[in-house]
């Protein structure tokens, strides 16, 4: 990997500062109430620097999604090949929720959800070519091929239900107070979906499959 020059390092720091500042302001004041000039001023940068890294305020959200997508790709490569499809899926859910909770945070996630409704970022959130959808789909397909999952529904249908459950649980986390256990609730919800398509599973008292 090539070593970055001091100029490149400075540019990356400026981009991160602009990104973090914009998301903080969006969270505090709402997307529509924040201008590029305000982002620039609060970050101690320049308008030229802003437009070097972002074409518009909207691209702030896209940049954050790219970071999240990079996490999914990296996480996939860390999973042992010998894990079954069910266990891979549950490991992904656990890693996903820990990452979003600790790295992204509730305030930024709430801002993304709110603005996705008004500014069409939902088109990006639910795109089927995003890494999350493709990774989940690959686990479903693998599970159906090896006989771990039933093939009652197509991989696309099952993947849509699982990713919808992920988004819904995250949305609930934004709505509820700190008593909502994001990790536990997400694992419980996705486990129930997977148990519905798993072959020859027996549920224990908690609703989790006994393997």
Q: Measure the end-to-end span.
A: 42 Å
What is the helix/strand order? HHHHHHHHHHEE
Radius of gyration, whole Å: 20 Å
Strand residue content: under 5%
Give the fraction of residues assigned to helices.
over 70%
Largest sheet: 2 strands, antiparallel
Gross geometry: elongated
Q: Assembly type of the shown chains?
A: single chain
Q: Which spans have pLDDT < 50 for at least 5 consecutive residues?
A: 203-211
Question: Total number of β-strand segments?
Answer: 2
Structural class: mainly alpha
Strand order of the largest sheet: 1-2
Task: Offer a quick outline of the entry.
The protein is an all-alpha fold.
Can you walk me through this structure?
It is a single chain. The chain is mainly alpha-helical and 211 residues long. Helices cover 71% and strands 2% of the residues. A two-stranded antiparallel ribbon has the order 1-2. Helix 1 packs across helix 6 and helix 6 (106-119) packs across helix 9. The chain is elongated. The termini are far apart. Mean pLDDT is 86; it is low at 203-211.
Which key features would you list for this structure?
single chain, 211 residues, mainly alpha, 10 helices
SSE layout:
Elements: H1 6-29, H2 36-43, H3 47-53, H4 58-78, H5 85-104, H6 106-119, H7 122-125, H8 131-145, H9 155-175, H10 182-197, E1 202-203, E2 209-210
Antiparallel strand pairs: 1-2
Helix pairs in contact: 1-2, 1-6, 4-5, 5-8, 5-10, 6-9, 8-9, 9-10
């Amino acid at each position: 990997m090539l070593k970055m020059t001091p100029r490149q390092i400075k540019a990356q720091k400026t981009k991160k500062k602009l990104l973090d500042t914009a998301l903080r302001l969006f969270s505090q004041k709402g997307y529509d109430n924040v201008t590029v000039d305000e982002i620039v001023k609060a970050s101690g940068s320049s308008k030229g620097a802003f437009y070097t890294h972002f074409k518009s305020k909207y691209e702030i959200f896209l940049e954050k999604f790219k970071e999240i997508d990079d996490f999914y790709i990296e996480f996939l490569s860390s999973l042992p090949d010998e894990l079954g499809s069910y266990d891979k899926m549950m490991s992904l859910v656990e890693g996903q929720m820990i990452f979003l909770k600790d790295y992204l945070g509730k305030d930024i996630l709430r801002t993304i959800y709110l603005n996705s409704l008004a500014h069409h970022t939902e088109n990006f959130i639910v795109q089927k070519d995003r890494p999350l959808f493709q990774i989940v789909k690959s686990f479903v397909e693998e599970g159906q091929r090896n006989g771990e999952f039933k093939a009652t529904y197509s991989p696309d249908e099952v993947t849509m239900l699982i990713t919808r459950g992920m988004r819904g649980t995250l949305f609930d986390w934004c709505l509820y107070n700190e008593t909502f256990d994001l990790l536990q609730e997400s694992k419980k919800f996705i486990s129930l979906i997977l148990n519905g398509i798993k072959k020859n599973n027996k549920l224990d008292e908690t609703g989790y499959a006994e393997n």
